[in-house]
Hints:
The complex is a heterodimer.
Chain A: H1 2-8, H2 20-42, H3 55-59, H4 61-66
Chain B: H1 2-39, H2 48-78, H3 87-109, H4 123-178, H5 191-232
Helix pairs in contact in B: 1-2, 1-5, 2-3, 3-4, 3-5
Amino acid sequence: MAQSAAGSIAQPVTVLVIPLRDWMPWALFGGLLMLLLIYFVGAEQGATSLLQGRAVHEFVHDSRHLLGFPCH
Amino acid sequence: MLVGLVAGLLVFAFARCAGEPQVDRAIAFEAGAGQARDEAPEPEMVSRKIQRGIGLLTGVVVYGAALGGIFGLVFAYARGRLSVARPRVLAAWLAAIGFVTLVLAPSLKYPANPPAVGNPETIGVRTGAYFFLIAISILASTLAVKVGRRLSGTFGTWYATLLAALFYVLVVGLCGHFLPTMDEVPANFPASLLWKFRIASWETQAVLWGSLGLLFGWLTERAEGMATTHAKG
Lengths: 72, 233
């Protein structure tokens, strides 16, 4: 009874807070993966090289310039 | 409670997966316009033109997807911690802060350079300084948010936000002042072209962050609406 009465009026919004313990593994793994991706777009074969040659650099060349990364 | 928790995680996962393709499409739009401007200073090697089309698309899409992923993580953390505002308001605020922190502030010191600008020998220094400034900027804005929240009890939200912004500007401005200045624009390089390129670079980033923030908020609200409906039914 009390519940149906409560349902008819506007209830305050409860915001679900995700506990840090649940958030941390996602943040660590996802964050690292995303940073690696950004590194490959932004800096690989520019200042530092993990791979030989200039293929990665040339391939993402234009986006690197336009997104504002330092480039050759 | 546990179900709510899982639902919350799913909501964010959904928003992340569904938000990014939209964002990427918006980026692909912008990429075409930027490429047209970008081609001008480097007219040689026509054979690479097609590859650049795809290459640009790939680079921007990967960058956008990665930013979207990090954005989702930050949003998941900030939700209910920093603000209990509606998801779309929070997402828009986070995107605005992200744009200023990661794009605007670093580019004021180290603006985007078109091809043909920049000495290849200093790439190491430039890249290092650029990422260092971004790191400082991230640190400063994180601290500024913390400072702002602490002060909001004493000064109220408005003045606390202003003070936090001032704190951010001071820290980044001071650190930026001591980083090396790079000016390697060739003497005969057309000024209008440089200006256009840098504006285009800002516009690209603005489109990226704008669509990221707005779409993320919209999809999160929609998904949460659906989740509530399912839970009730």
